[in-house]
Amino acid sequence: MSFAIKYEDIRFEEQVIVKPKYMAICHADQRYYQGKRDRRILNEKLPMALIHECCGEVVYDPTNTYQLGEQVVLIPNVLGKPDSIIMENYAVDSKFLSSGQDGFLREYVTLPINRVVSHQGVPSKLAAITEFISVAVHSVERFENVAHGRKERIGIWGDGSLAFVVANVLKQKYPDTEIVVIGKNLKKLAYFTFADKTYLAEELPDTFGVDHAFECCGGEGSYYAIEDIIKCIQPQGTILLMGVSENKIAVNTRNILEKGITLIGSSRSGRIDFERAIEYLRNDRFQKRLELILMEDSPVTSMKDIHRVFQTDLGTPFKTVFEWRL
Asked: Residues 165, 103, 89, 247: is their CA dihedral positive or negative?
């Protein structure tokens, strides 16, 4: 992947102008950077500015909603037609920045006023991953609206960044619920000190069970996680599917039917989820936990530095953030 500078005139009219300050790298950005998407998809979407996790400061707001210099997070959803039923992140006519349209790897970004949310009081290093946290918040809210009331034990399959954030949100929302994390990497599981229990997937007791579960693995690991979850979940439990897989995953439908299991696909988020994510981030305990999984690379001041942070991220166990000074 190569980067090039592109100059363009922008029309802002009723839009707010934001100067990006901090950014974070997502697995989706890495797949584009490494060219690990289907060639047809790459040809359709590139060239494109990457990054959809970003915070910055307001430099112009014709609506006077935000003060100049106010710290805001940027929402990458491009809204389609208003719909009272379908959420903005699932609308068929909505679009997503850094997925077919330029993301935030720019000197200045123009957005509709409803695509930014203030993060005053939250450090920029943490605010940079608000979009990522909002994805977890969205999944937990969908779970709350569908799952039955018995929530004595919730299992999370996965030991990466997504599992870590989901576990934190669940612990905040359901403090009396036993949160159990099942993973493959002992070193990563050691970060989940706030969870009630952690297990290596291959060491799960035969009698282990959960009321509900969140699948946060993705890739080839999704198959094994879903298989485990269907085996361990109690009747009429709810499964949140959050991991992205490029290939088809076999699912044991017989046991899903026999147990009356509900499967929910959860992806991305909307403005309300960003606002809730900021509220979580204003909690000191939540902040301190999230700081554990952030690796701040050196500031980006040149094109060469952009390649550096993407390479750094390949060796980071969780999330890479960096200050944007271009």
From this structure: negative
CATH code linked to domain 16-128+293-323? 3.90.180.10
Token pair for residue 118?
């203030």
Distance CA 36, CA 245 (A): 12
Segment holding 197, helix H or strand E: strand 197-200
DSSP secondary structure letter of residue 250: -
Helix extents (H) in 233-283: 253-259, 271-281
- Cis amide bond preceding 47, omega within 30: yes
pLDDT tens digit string along 1-30? 566 677 677 776 779 999 999 999 999 899
Evaluate if residue 85 carries a pLDDT over 80: yes
Q: Which residue type is seen at 139?
A: S
Residue 113: DSSP 8-state: G
DSSP 111: E
Query: What are the beta bridge partners of residue 239?
Result: 213, 263
Domain locations in the chain? 16-128+293-323, 136-265
Amino acid at 121: G
